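Q: My collaborator sent me two sequences in one message, no labels, and asked for predicted structures for both. Can we handle them in order? The first one she listed is below.
A: Yes, handling them in the order given. First sequence, followed by its structure tokens:
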Amino acid sequence: MRLLLVEDDLNQVEILKPALSSAGYVVELAHDGQDASFLMREDSFDAIVLDLGLPLKPGLEVLAEMRKAGDETPVLVLTGRDTWQERVDGLKAGADDYLGKPFHVEELLARLDAVIRRQYGRSTQKIKHGDLELDPDRQLVIDSDGKEHQLTGIEFRLLRYLMMNGERVLSKSQLSEHVYEEEQIRDSNVIEVYINRLRQRFGKGLIETHRGQGYRLKG
């Protein structure tokens, strides 16, 4: 899942980015409201963590603009001024959830997972497809016999994105964007290697190839 973290407090970023990456998110960063607005227009994300107290452009203005433009990406708002009025203003501007500072990283991860699940119409954290169940907390797959299969970071990101979009054909470039972070080499051909690794582990029929289009999980 591809995430935009908009936060100007570098100390906070140093805490959040590794935690989000460890949870399986591909994290892009913006440190002010102008950069955030630009990235929202140019790229697509599965969720946005948005601080309200931003330089150059306030977070509420960034949020209102993206909603006015029809962008329905889930947004978890952060603020150091945890007043009821600001919570109301954030929700009215289009926030999906609200978290006041200071907060526990575990709560942020839980709330972020919840807003993404709602976006995909899922009520539980574990993701099921056919005989497989993906456990995001432990980043492993449980098969029909109850056997647990530990995944590498890239295998987990790739399989989770395929399972969340089970009915969609996803191109190599789409999958690459949701597997690799900006500073990593995004070679879409490497996606084939990991697709084949997942097929070897969970069956050749797990993932369909649509020539010239991409891949999707077999229904």
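Q: And the one she listed second?
A: Here it is, processed independently of the first:
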Amino acid sequence: MIPSRVISGQNLTQQVTDFFMSVPFFERINPEEIKVIAKHIAMMDVKRGEVLFNESDKGNYICFIVTGRLEVVITKESTGEEVVLATLTRGQSTGEMAIIEDMPRFATIRAIDDSKMYILSKSAFELILSKHPHIGIKLLKGVAYVLSHNLRQTSIKLADYM
């Protein structure tokens, strides 16, 4: 679920558009198309140490980091030990899988610093896909790019581990 601390109803369109113009996820999308997406974006603030979402939570939104840093943490099944997989910063995203599939979150996301994020809900994503399919396809390509990049990084780490 989208956390209750999401700030919406504000006129974020210009701020969101300016930010997304500098994010690789949106590099295939022109400014007019970004304005369409921006109308569906909410803003969320997370305090240092606060958990954005937990491993195994139901996911229904993707976050784009505007300020701050977040850590991606998983718990080892064998020992219960937490392992930090990655640190995310400005322009990066988390939760891409949640808008594609109906599976639980695979990791916990925790704020290292006070952080600000833009949120795109799964329902907004699906609305864009149905009302603006040409923009939706470009969003899907952005998701595919991020997931592909993350898979490559994971494969490299796995190969080093083996």
